[in-house]
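<purpose> Linking amino acid order to shape
<body> The protein record starts here
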Amino acid sequence: MSRKSLILVLVLGALVLTAVLTNRTRVVFQEDSPSGLIRVVERSDGLRELYIGGSRARQTALYPGRPGHLELPYTRVAMTGLALVPEDARILFVGLGGGAMPTYTRHLRPRARIQTVELEPLVVEAARDWFGFRTDSLMSVHAADGRVFIEEAPPGTWDLIFLDAFSDGDVPRALSTVEFLQAVARALTPAGVVVSNLHTASPRYEAMVATYQAVFQEVALVQVPGRRQRILLARTTADPGAVVEDRIGSPGDTVMAPGAGIDLRRESVVEAVRSLARDRELGFDLVTIVEGGFDVPNPPDVQVLHDGG
């Protein structure tokens, strides 16, 4: 074997060994819960992953101590929601996992008031013990049923609600129905936005989109690159006084009244994301993701989801 070939073999061998060592994992925590077995797995590079029940899907993947980093692609796309609300927005996350998105949001928006509701108390415990999740005067966590938590909230409690609760790899039906989304709409401020993580492989995917369209006046989707996931954005028109006729412009033109929020047209969302990226170091190119993956869905020809249906 020539010297050049030998060097090439050694380099390739080193790369293979590095890849193997990087992907080695160990279980650092596991315990049974009403939601199934809760496991925390750590890779040799420090990445920690959370698994719940029998699902092979990661509920969380993050590096403890790196609040400005989001590992999972869908969590990055979901941050589009932050571009659509004020700096001091009141934000609710339904579903904690390891706390990647609330922690990132706290890092990116230090003035925001952030609440998280998580059904399984053991997940809250694991997030604190193994993922570095911390609460403070502006960030709290509640071990409770997310639907009940929203239904019992006063109207107009939050500017932004992230729906990221999964059971067996899909959104629980109780968090997908018209009745639940009506409660979400009531809990939002007039210009508030809901952000939902949807799997396009779900047999209920089109029905879920249709259900959002039945409740909210504006619905948009952003494709998660390389994944069978889309992030859904939805909002209602603020109120009859929030959208007013523009007497200066052409007949029929409308403008958003002050405080009415950002509409979900492609150009409005892209510009809002571009502004966010100028003001903050996101750690990824959200502008390109939204520009390339934005879509306003046509109404699907399917039945919407109802409680008990």
